[in-house]
Amino acid sequence: MSSASEHALNAHGLYKRFKTGRTHIEVLKRVDFDALHGDVTMVMGPSGSGKSTLIATLSGLLKPDEGQVAALGQDIWSLRQGKIDRFRLDHCGFIFQGFNLFSALTALQQVEIVLKYQGVPKREARRRAADALAEVGLETRMNSRPSEMSGGEKQRVAIARALAKSPQLLFADEPTSALDGENGQVVIRLLQRAAKSHGAAVVCVTHDPRLEAYADRIIHIEDGNILGDHRVVSTIPNSEPHHHRPALVGA
Ligand code: ADP
Ligand code: MG
Asked: Which residues constitute the domain of residue 234?
């Protein structure tokens, strides 16, 4: 596929319907979507507009009723379930509103466990997990458990966990909505850095208008329809002037 190298994601004609009791509700109504490597693509829309459903269909978590999703050039919904799971494991990072951390594990273990599950040898998993935590500024919190961390710190652990495997596709669903403005800004800057220095396609869905300033592209969704799509000329620099790091974490 010739477009595969430019488009990290390319979806066409997505429909998703849910049955609730006797009625069906149509949550995605013939959605077309694409996202580029190196971009923070922000999908904005009110609560209930279909953002989480869209991200789930794009990332191999929820099969659409109709339509295709090409992710890194692969028609993911034509793959067998095991292959879809492997694709997610190898290429996708996820960041959610609720952090989704294991309460019993330390920050280091939260990140390590994903790498081990992916088949990375123990010693290398430990090194990469430590690097990823340092990258998000948590080098002194490696041994902290979620109960000992603030919301902002927990979300940074979740980001380290997502970034440690150097994903080409990074999906964030309302990543800042449980955070105050300052911590939200740290989180969105980390996502921005994943796109800029790492070439990941970052797809972030949110109803938080404060994040608009950090997007390369803003797509508006309402009631399951894409209403607008425009590129942003950002006034915010892409990397911090003081300690620019060329690469995110070890490959
Ligand atoms: P958003 O993330 O924009 O808030 P969602 O994609 O979560 O929106 O949900 C869109 C609509 O689909 C909502 O009306 C929601 O209630 C409905 N919905 C989502 N998931 C399900 C499901 N599993 N079963 C039934 N309805 C659902
Ligand atoms: Mg949602």
From this structure: 7-100+151-156+166-244
